[in-house]
Structures are given as structure tokens and as C-alpha cells.
Amino acid sequence: MKKCFIGAFLYLATTICIFTVRPAAADGPYTFTIYVEKGETGLTGTFSNGHVFLGISDGVHAEQKWGWYTQGETKIQKLPGIFACAGGKLKSDDGTPYDVSKTYPITRHGYYVVQSQVIRQRSAGESGTATWHPFNHCGDFVQDTANAAGLHIELPWHLTGRNRPNIFADYLLAHGGIAHSRTPSAANWSGVYTKDTTKVRVNAQGGQFTASSEWTQPGESHGAHGAEDAWNCRLRDALHAHCEGKGRYWGPEKALMYQGTVDLTLEGKTISWVEHIVSVSCTSRQQNCNNLGYTPAIHVGAVFSGSATRE
What we know:
Elements lengths: L1 H20 L9 E7 L13 E7 L6 E6 L5 H4 L10 E4 L7 E6 L2 H20 L10 H11 L16 H10 L3 E2 L11 E5 L2 E8 L2 E10 L7 E13 L2 E11 L3 E14 L2 E15 L18 E8 L1
Antiparallel strand pairs: 1-2, 1-5, 2-3, 3-4, 5-6, 7-8, 7-14, 8-9, 9-10, 10-11, 11-12, 12-13, 13-14
Helix pairs in contact: 3-4
């Protein structure tokens, strides 16, 4: 009996010890960061340049970054946003460069308020109940969300606005924000990259560069066909770039003209791309571009990817 009592006591003591010394699950610190990609100074940069976006962290998982955009991808498609006619879309800003940032501590409750705001804004953009316009732009989204989280960000009004990117950047710097230097060079991107019948040429200087690609394939039943693209690119960082451009997919009698955006990644001597088609038009001797037969599914919303290695 005595041995049973001692054994039960040791078991109970061990159990209590395990549950009292086991570390509690991590909780925080919760943070809210405002990021600004500065645009041009003066009136020319009021609507077309720069960006303000936010980042939130629970101290455990990777930071989530979000920004408010028009639904348009190219500059032409974004332009109607000045008149609230380009829709609205909440997008991840994980790869977006920035010039100024400031991180604020928030409460656990504030963190989940931000999560709710993000869900609400995304839903409003998808349903069309909210659009991007000069009085509901990326800076408004960030300021409203910050205040909902309890931060009380109050920017003064200027002749050109209240919370557009450059004004937001100045406000953050005046309140303890950090200026970041981002001058990656595109020099190591220059070269000719090939894979099978695909060839990509990159001519790079400074933080911007041009690129072109061409692809030719002998057709078994339709004759030779191929594609040509021309891109204007801007580095996001040393290994990533975002481009806008246009291309032509051609065959013996018909051709498709298209515009799109391209995200490029450089890994060693290999360049890879993901191209999003945003507009398509057609030319044809037969005035008929349906069922081209030899073409891939080039249409608005189509996505193409590939890679090539430097020669």
C-alpha cells in the first residue's frame, strides 16, 4: 500500500511539473507597418506614381502585406481610376519595393481588426461596391485601417492631397520612420537567354531595362508560327523585376496582337517569367481569328510562364 501511495504521488508531481514548466504558445508582439514607395514630386505624381501599403505581423507567422489598387494592370487601364472607373482590387504587396517605413505596436484585438478590414476591402473590390479613385486610394486604405487598429494616424492636408505617397513618406519620416535605400543594379541581367526555340534578350542599365523575346516553331500542318514580345521593366530588387509590354503571335495568314504584364526572376544564369495577358486584338487576311488552330489559348486573363538560360 505504501509503495502504491508513493508511486501515485510521484506520478501526480511529474504531471504537475510537466504542465507548469511547458512554455506557453507564442503570442505577439503584434505590429502594424506602413510602407511607402515614393512617387514623383509635384502634381505629375499625384495619381500615377508611388504606393502606400501596410504589413501586419502576429510575431509568429510571416508578415502579411496588402495594398489597394485599381483593377487595371497597365497605365492605360489604370487611367480611368481618376474618375472612379477602373474598379478596385486588394492585392498582396509581398514583393513591392519601398522607400520609407514605420512599424507600430498594436494590440491583439487591433491585429484582428486589421484582418477584418482586409477581408472587407477585398470583398468590396471583388463585388464592385468599392473602387479606387483620388479620394479612396491606397493611402486612404492604409490610414483608415491604421486608425481602425487604434493608431490615430492624422496627416495634414496639402494642396495636392492628404495621404498620397510622398506626403505619407514625409509624415512617417517626421515621426520616426526609416528611409530605405533601394538602388539595385540591373547590370547583371544583361545578356541573351535561350531554351529550345525561345530566345530572350535583356539590355539593362541602372534600375530599369528593356527586354525582348522571340519564339519560332515550324508548324506540322499550318506552316511556321511564333511570337515576339517587347517589355519595359523596372527592378523590384536585385533578382526580381516587373515589366509592361506588348507582343505579337503570328502564323501564315493571321496574327494576334496582345498587351500584358510580366514578372521576371533571375536565378544565377537562368531567367524565368510569368506573363499575364490583359488585352488582345487580331489581324487576319480572312477577317476571321476564331479557331486559329496553331495558337495557344491567348485571351484576356491568360497566363504564360517559362524560363531560359544565359548563353
